[in-house]
Amino acid sequence: MAAQSELQLGSLARTVPQSRWKHVMHGLKRDKFLYLLIAPGLLFFLIFKYVPMWGVVIAFQDYSPYMGVMNSNWVGFEHFARFFSNQDFFLLFRNTMAISLLSLLFFFPLPIILSLLLNELRNEIYKKWIQSIVYMPHFLSWVIIAGITFLLLSQSSGIVNKMLVSLGFAKYDFLTNENNFWALLTVQNIWKEAGWGTIIFLAAIAGVDPQQYEAAKMDGANRLQQAWHVTLPAIRSVIVVLFILKLGHIMDVGFEQVFLMMNGAVSNVADVFETYVYRLGIQQGQFSFSTAVGLFKSLVGLILVIVANKLSKRFGEEGVY
Predict the structure, then answer these.
(1) Distance from C-alpha of 192 to C-alpha of 113, rounded to nearest angstrom
(2) pTM higher than 0.85 for the full model?
(3) Cβ pair 68, 83 in contact under 8 A
């Protein structure tokens, strides 16, 4: 009897994986066009996101392009120790966090506010025109935006300074004043991306049940009260998820923008981890050291996402995962 039961269990164990495999194959065959639709996105993440992860091993090596990844000498955490003991570390950390926190404080809420305002527009033609106008800066490169900023704020030939002089005021140093640099980057980010950031929030607002607004009207709520008590609670989960994802990129301030706006007069407040990696990794060829810096940034973002996700679940939100 024992031998017979063992044979039955063995055959059952072989049957279950086979049935699961058949079920998977049936699902693939049934939804083949959907899988073909997502195939380009999967290939993109596989080729450009997951495969390059293998390269982080050089952060623990004295990497040489001539010897390759497999033959380079292992040095452990030597590059990390060098990075944390470097006198530039605290300067870079301060600048990066200051720019990121300003963006988080002033930039992140603006797409939400702009979405609420656009949602209140009842004239569809006027609404579409406004949306197109606020979306437009997103498609401009940072090179163009840096050029526009220079034309407007240059001390020698900027339009704003010419207007100040014509009004009897002295010229103001916008671009080479350390006190202005962080605010200037924040304003550029707001102008370029605030409109584009409304897309997700407007999509979330479109899914709000209209009956909730009708009930709020019957209770005597005005438009502002409806936005506060109906719209915002309805899109709260979307706001939380995007906030958590934003925390994951808190160490990424945008190399191109900072690099184009940086000059010798503001380097003390403009130098961030990304420009530091560019100087050491690209210009000086210190590939292992610059990879260690990049890995540190990624780990900080990962820890913040995990902590924020757990806190959001503790307060009753769904979180990212």
Answers:
(1) 16
(2) no
(3) no
CB 276 within 8 A of CB 270: no
SS3 317: coil
Residue pLDDT, tens place only, 129-176: 998 999 999 999 999 999 999 999 988 888 999 999 998 888 888 898
CB 72 within 8 A of CB 55: no
**pLDDT per residue as tens digits for the range 86-133:** 888 999 999 999 999 999 999 999 999 999 999 888 888 888 899 899
- Residue showing tokens 């990879």: 291
Q: Cα(288)–Cα(67) distance, rounded to whole angstroms?
A: 13
Paired tokens of 299: 């780990």
Rounded CA separation 141/16 (Å): 55
Check the CA dihedral 156-162-164-167 and report its sign.
Answer: positive
> Which backbone phi and psi does 34 adopt, to 5 degrees?
-65, -40
Residue 247 has pLDDT above 80, yes or no: yes
- CB atoms under 10 Å from CB of 179, counted, come to 9
Instruction: Please give the Cα distance from 270 to 176 (Å, whole number).
Output: 11
